[in-house]
Each structure stands twice: as C-alpha cells, then as structure tokens.
C-alpha cells in the first residue's frame, strides 16, 4: 500500500510535532523490536522512529524488514535518522488518522 498526495501530506504534517516513540540502536532489527513496533502502531496508527548513531541499520533495511513482517505498515517519510510509519488500526477505537484520511 502506498499513500500519495494530500493524504501523505496530512500524515507528514501530523507527524511533524511528534517525538519518536521507538529507537533502534546497536541491536538492530530483531523479532522483539518488530513485535513492539506492531503494538505501538496498532495503538497509535502513526508513529515516529529514530535510528540512533550506533546502529548499523539503514532506513531501507527497516522498510524491507517491515514489508516481510507486515505489509500493511506504510513508510510515510524518512528524513535522516527519523522515520514516520502508518498503518490503519484494526480496532475502531484506535482509529484517529484513518478517519481523517477517508475525508480527504
């Protein structure tokens, strides 16, 4: 799934003021990290991740791992060591951004 145009712009604007909720360090991409990311994105729909300086993980490596783990997680933006990811929540009570995206 790819989000383009106004929807992408809306999600980027919402993420601009967010602080990273997950940091990837020297341990890199592990099954535990992916499970934790899945929980966070299910609860929040839109999250920001920070890649620390001591990590050997490149943003594209994380995108590839996410596509294998869960293809519904969409990378919205990557700037330097920060990444913004989106996935529509399965529970209606956790849907905040997806409701707005439907109106755009």
Automatic annotation (TrEMBL):
Gene Ontology molecular functions: RNA binding
All copies of domain CRM, residue ranges: 1-98
UniProt entry keywords in alphabetical sequence: RNA-binding
Top-rank taxon, per record: Bacteria
SUPFAM superfamilies cross-referenced by the UniProt entry: YhbY-like (SSF75471)
Keyword RNA-binding on entry: yes
Protein name, per record: CRM domain-containing protein
Protein's organism: Companilactobacillus crustorum JCM 15951
Lineage, broadest ranks: Bacteria, Bacillati, Bacillota, Bacilli, Lactobacillales
């Amino acid at each position: 799934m790819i989000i383009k145009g106004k929807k992408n712009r809306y999600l980027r604007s919402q993420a601009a003021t967010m602080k990273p909720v997950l940091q990837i360090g020297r341990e890199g991409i592990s099954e535990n990290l992916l499970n934790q990311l899945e929980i966070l994105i299910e609860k929040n729909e839109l999250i920001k991740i920070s890649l620390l300086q001591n990590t050997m993980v490149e943003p594209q490596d994380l995108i590839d791992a996410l596509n294998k783990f869960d293809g519904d997680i969409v990378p919205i933006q990557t700037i330097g060591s920060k990444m913004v990811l989106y996935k529509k929540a399965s529970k209606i009570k956790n849907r905040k951004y997806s409701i707005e995206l439907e109106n755009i």
